[in-house]
Amino acid sequence: MGNNSFCPTGCFVSNLPDGSFENNPSSWYSFGAGFLRVQSGAKDGNYSIQVTNGGAYQDITFAAGTKRFIMKGWSRHQGAISVSNPADYSIYCDITLSDGTYDWGRTATFDPNSIINVWVSATLQVTETKEIKNARCYTMFRNGVGAVQFDMIEHWNCPV
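^ thats the sequence. predicted structure below, dont judge the formating
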């Protein structure tokens, strides 16, 4: 996994544990109604996760000096879906800065009107004026109708 050609100058691919859900996803925690690991139609490898109202998240700790990072992931839906708030179908990060302040709700949204059964990507690029201490980043589908799959979740660190 990993698309090094995507990696912007000054960034490096981080070792996000089990971003393709190939192992028992013990690195991922349930959010809301959680997720189901499925073995059909994965974007990468044999497994992805399916979400109907919730998602999965990981906590990421950053090295001192980091003010920028990138998250990229893939999603698809197998039938009609809808969400009232675009952020409810997204890569979603809550960020804690080194001075103890927060930057909640940074998102890269997926298009609920994309073609059925076609994997589409979303990329979240975060740049802060203060150092980033940690982030809780989700693959999220909530407050909507239908089901989606997520796969190939990647993370790039971009230290100053």
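The domain at 28-55+67-153 is CATH 2.60.120.260 (Jelly Rolls).
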